[in-house]
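CORE FACILITY INTAKE
Project code: CF-77B
Contact: R.S. (postdoc)
Sample description: multi-component assembly, two entities in total
Requested service: structural model of the whole complex
Turnaround: standard
Below are the sequence entries exactly as provided by the requester. Do not edit them.
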Amino acid sequence: MLELILFYMASTIALVSTILALTRANATHALIYLILSLLAVAVIFYLIGAPFAAALEVVIYAGAIMVLFIFVIMMLNLGEKGDRREKQLLKPKVWIVPEILALIIKFELVLDLSQSTPATTQGLVTSKQVGLTLFGPYVLAVEIASMLLLAGLVGAYHLGRRYLEEGREK
Amino acid sequence: MSDGMIILFALIVLAGAVGGAAVMTWWERRLLGIWQDRYGPNRLGPFGILQVAADMLKLLTKDDWVPPFADKVVFIFAPTAIVMAMMLGFAVVPFGPGLQIIDMNIGLLFFLGMTSLAVYSVLLGGLASNNKYALLGGLRSAAQMVSYEVFMGLALMGVVMLSGSFNLREIVESQADGWYCISQFLGLFVFTVAGIAESHRLPFDLPEAEHELTAGFHTEYGGMKFAMFMLGEYLGLILISSMIVTLFFGGWLGPWLHPVIWFGIKTFIVICFFVLLRAAIPRPRYDQLMSLGWKIMLPLTLVNLVFTGAIALWLANGGTA
């Protein structure tokens, strides 16, 4: 019973904060709502018996990736000018196409959920199980992800190096 | 423990942590004074301990002011974030056998998550102040904390490998036949350095370096909001110290005395060591800090990880190749 209440509280927070994250004109406020939404999703993960996923959601998404987003916002430092431009972009008519696309997904989701039985908790998924599946059946996905990260690393190094050399010539 | 007992225990832990943080402000100044051949605050009460009360009164009675050019809501929210995150971090610390608010399977990850959320306080504080010094401080803190977080987590993985668990209670119990500060000395070194950088204390307090950024991210803060930042910083110091004790110095383990007393003594020694570092080491330049992180700390951590993994596997196979 308590779990159910907590689940609905977390889902409500996730939904409301995601909507607010989409509609805020101020980029900082939007990002804070997005972080809140990620934290709420972490709570949901914890409640359905995936504590490891919940912890990684907090450490990686909320704690590292969103920090970099805010870092970029700080570097740009748009201020009031950015807010005004964003307000002009957020007119009712720009919502039409995304709303149609979202409705299609929503329709599919409802159709899917009405046919299959909801996946309830299958007991606790421990960090050991996550590790075993990652390096067992899903080892290929892990390798592909690592290749992608390596490509990103090389790319960042290349860009940074060019910038450094140009600075030195001046 | 029953539900009521846990709530009571949580309240005791919170009161202890906040009280400890308040006393730390005085103790740190006293200790620094002694090491620098002066007295420090020694006038009010026995050994000057009532200085804490005087400071608190001063901060409480100050005008609670928000600058007109600041982003008001975020400006007020920022200092609370660090205090909340650090207080939540205490939930998984095992103070003694059975004396833990939540005995979580992923306790270690929970701690890492809470410390990484504490970054937002400094970031948002710097951003909402709408002041160039604050913004620079916030930017620095973002780069510093994200970089040092990487190997803060990686440094702990050696301990996780040896104990075979993310559960802090089990990590302490697995140290009964030898503390990890011996086998994981590289991990301990890297974690200590990263811990100082995460709690942005001297010598790694570049987000607020007063000689170049006036006061960095909290330039515009005063009164209780400033006090919240300080409270968060000292809570972070106590939390990091108690984690070092839990992970590397056997937590509550020790002969003769009560486990909680052992935990307290060890944590106190680690805190004093942090104050000594502050007194002894000058602040590095910003690029030195970043290159120290990525060029020395990260390779050290990876070496430690590879060797620990190899030895753990070797021992698991019965010590034969």
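Facility notes:
- The interface with chain A takes residues 71, 73-74, 77, 104-106, 109-110, 112-114, 116-117, 119-120, 123-124, 126-128, 130, 135, 138-139, 142-143, 145-146, 149, 153, 166 of chain B (CB under 8 Å).
- Residues 58-316 of chain B form one domain.
Invoice: internal transfer
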